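INTERNAL AUDIT FORM
Audit reference: QA-55
Scope: verify that the stored structure record matches its stored sequence.
Auditor: D.O.
Record contents follow.
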Amino acid sequence: MKALPKKLLPLTVFAIVVTSLFSVQPAQAYKVTLREVGTNVVAHGSGAINLTGLFFFGSGSFFITTLVPSLGRISTGPPPPGLGSVDVYRVFSGPANFGSGGQHNATESLSSGNFVGIQASVDELFVPHGYISNSALSSSATWAGATFASLGVTPGTFVWTWGTGANQNFTLIIGGVGAPDGGSTVSLLSFALLGLVALGHKLPLLRGRKS
């Protein structure tokens, strides 16, 4: 087999490293971050949900995008139309609430994405009708003219689980952005880039040596 030209070696190594980094990244579990942005409170949710271990309770309709901290309820995304448009699953474990506030409906026109939610007081998880386990979800909601204090939420991280496998949890982070992956992907990619640069500087020296 013919050896690769020395000029192509650094690029080949870099390509292999980058491909390996992104091919081994596991799907992230579903997480919602709730933050004060200007004069609003904004929620962003993304990730996947593994339904294994949950009991299918049924399909429902007439859901609204709302926040009820005292009941441990939060939903994001626009309310889906039609009968049976939301699937409800039970049962999980975790905190019964994430504050003392009552019901506050989101500004409907500012919601987007999939309708996803949880109500900890009755152990109910809401996903789009027909949701396939471990599929990617993304949603957002905005409470215009609100603050954490007016909504009655308690800053912190709240996690509900129903197993020990991947994506068998629902996380709510109030007042922060969470820890996506500890920076491991970025760090490894930085090391790959540094290695590429170092190898590029070293090759001329290697070519200049006599065997």
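Auditor finding: record pair retrieved intact. DSSP finds three helices and 13 strands in the chain.
Action required: none
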